[in-house]
Each structure stands twice: as structure tokens, then as C-alpha cells.
Amino acid sequence: MIWLPPLERLARRVQEIYLHIDFDGFAPEVAPGFVDEPVPGGLSFEDAEGIMRAAAERFRIRAATPATYTPELDKEERTLRFGLRIIELLGGLTQQSRWLSAANRTSAIVRAAARERVEGMKLR
């Protein structure tokens, strides 16, 4: 887990973060629907989950944004499904992290909406 040492160094300097999840950093087979040309070797969902969980354990996450989704380039709605899984994970992490209370209040709504959409797509 190569991301742990940088997170540990950052945790010694700051207590709160803004988590930006840029889809063009992921492998094209995971999230093909983003602005830039897909490049092999990107992150997997498991990588994202590990990074997000590690961040939630170390920081108060003030806000989080999934970014760079382009529906016209999304093959078989894979990026949409991936994004909804990320939102679902973020909603779950609000209970683990030291999120703001407003985020905790809205997390149940966001998590339920993401779950409904994901289940409607028959994801595993």
C-alpha cells in the first residue's frame, strides 16, 4: 500500500482534508467515461477503497467530490456504476470518519440514493 506513507506524513501536518476523487486516475476498464484519453495501469476500485478508508481513519473529511465523469464516453455505464459505488462507500465512511455533523446527517440520504441506483443496475 504505497499510499500509506504519504498519508501518514500528511496526518502529522493537517487534521482535515478535502477528498477529490478524479475518475481519470482509474483504469479504463473500471471507469472509461472521463474526459482524457484512457491510459492503462490506473487504479482499481479496491485501490480507491483502500485509500478512502485510510484517509477516513486519519483525517476529518470536510468534503468529497467524485469528478471528471463524461456520460457520452461511458461504455455500458461502467463509470456511472463505479461512481455510485464510490458514493456508497463515502456514505459509509461518514460513520467511521470524523466528518462534520451536517455530512453525517445527509450521508444516509446520499447512501440510500446511491444504493437504490446501484441495485437498479443489478451490480454485484
Descriptive account of the structure:
The radius of gyration is 15 Å and the shape is globular. It has 124 residues and is an alpha+beta fold. Strand 1, helix 2 and strand 2 form a beta-alpha-beta unit. It has four helices and two strands, in the order αβαβαα. A two-stranded parallel ribbon has the order 1-2. The protein has a single domain, classed as Arginase, Chain A, CATH 3.40.800.
- The level of helicity is 40-55%
The end-to-end span amounts to: 25 Å
Q: Nearest-angstrom radius of gyration?
A: 15 Å
Written as H for each helix and E for each strand, in order along the chain, the element string is HEHEHH
Provide the structure class.
alpha+beta
Name of the CATH homologous superfamily: Ureohydrolase domain
CA-based shape? globular
Main beta-sheet annotation: 2 strands, parallel
Unreliable residue runs: none
Mean pLDDT: 80
* SS element count, helices: 4
CATH architecture type: 3-Layer(aba) Sandwich
Q: How many domain regions?
A: 1
Oligomer: single chain
**Fraction in beta strands:** 5-15%
CATH domain class: Alpha Beta
Number of strands: 2
Strand order of the largest sheet: 1-2
Kindly report the CATH topology. Answer: Arginase, Chain A
